[in-house]
Give the backbone structure.
Amino acid sequence: MSPLFKNPLMKASILALAPIFIGMCAAFPALAATPIDQTHPLDPRGRVEIDNLKGRVEVRAWDRPEVKITGSLGAGVEKFSAEGDRGALHIEVKYPSRSNNTEPTVLVVQVPLQAELEISTVSALIDVHGVAPRELSLESVSGDIAAVGAPRRASVESVSGDVVLTLNSGDVDASSVSGDLTLNGRLNGEVSVETVSGNLRMDNRGERLRRLSASTVSGDIELKAALAADGEISMESVSGDLILIAPRDLSAEVSGESFSGDLSAPGAKIEREEFGPGSSFHTRYGSGKGEVRIETFSGDATLRLQ
Amino acid sequence: MNSTPHPIGEAELRMALRGLHRDAEPGHDLWPGIAARIASLPQHSQPLPPPRPRWMWPLATAASLMLAVGVAWNTQPATSPALSGAPIATTAAAARKRAPLVQREAETLTVQYQAALRELDPQAVPAGWQPGLEALDRSAAEIRGALRRDPNSRLLLERLRDTYTRRLALSRRALYA
């Protein structure tokens, strides 16, 4: 037996302090975190896939043909792996199935500027900055997503986390269930944005979109968008309010329809059903080359030209 | 940079990056048949084209599951329990025949959806998934309520279908979390 335990007073003191020590360890899990520091070669246009259940995933672009992974593994992680070759690298933080006694993991990953990127999390936050891949795919359940970059195409999905995107891109497909969704940037291709109950805002910074589809059930939508010649905009909601802000030189056939919401468009005559609810309008701006369709059930819909 | 063909050139890339810091269906899906029947209805107005944004999660599987369970359901005796908030609790044949087609389709869809959901939901779902699942349930209830007010709305039927599909896909995904 240790000399410490031979002294009854000392033994009692140690036993009394033990729960406090254990409690401190539980209160400061970062003490148990394991640092990560790895570097892997990757082609400048290779592919990086990252899976992390909880914590945070930060990705930054750099000019080197390699991937540097730093951060800290949370206590209780089953396995951390970074496997692949120069063409593709898969980074995964594996947690024990359905375990609540694990701590979050923070991954800070530096990737080649144009490397394709796919990130999947559950509660972990996703923060991506400065990348310019052909394909960018971000997916989270409850974690927020923030991305700034110039991917050729982007696909972003969240369930309850908020999404804030600043993308200079051709095509973007972004959706959320209850989280709010904000999309800004120079967007000039096909954009599809959708929420269920989250609010949605989009501003394409004066670029002209070929096609824009925006829909929600109960969230409010505000789009500030310009339309390419022969372009199309479609907006739908059940109870959410819709606002479309278009430039004064809008050239499109515009139609709107609602069961019980109020419709408004500059110069448009709102037709109301003679018996029962329902209203609609159809009007043309400019030469009417493009097409805009707006439909709600009970939400209001407004078109503004400015 | 290597010589891999790439649609974006360096100059274009620089242009694309510039200013960023300042700005800081599966073949056997139920829907095609439903859509075809609805499309044959007299048109009140120009219908919106079906907006089908891609949902990355396994919608195909979920939709197939809806179909599979739906087929199984339709071959069983009509013993479905009443659904809270759903307009399908009493599905007397005569009443169904009188109901508008959109409403009937919504009722069929709801029965099939509820059956599929019962297969998926007995498992405990991790807490982080609940807000999304509950939001979808609230939205589905809202749409069903709206359909009672406007039983001819294609918009509502399409939203209902999308909401059900997302809910099933999310439940299925949660099973493997």
In short: The CA atoms of residues 45 and 154 of chain B lie 11 Å apart. DSSP finds seven helices and no strands in chain B. Chain B touches chain A through 46 residues (CB under 8 Å). The mean pLDDT of chain B is 66.
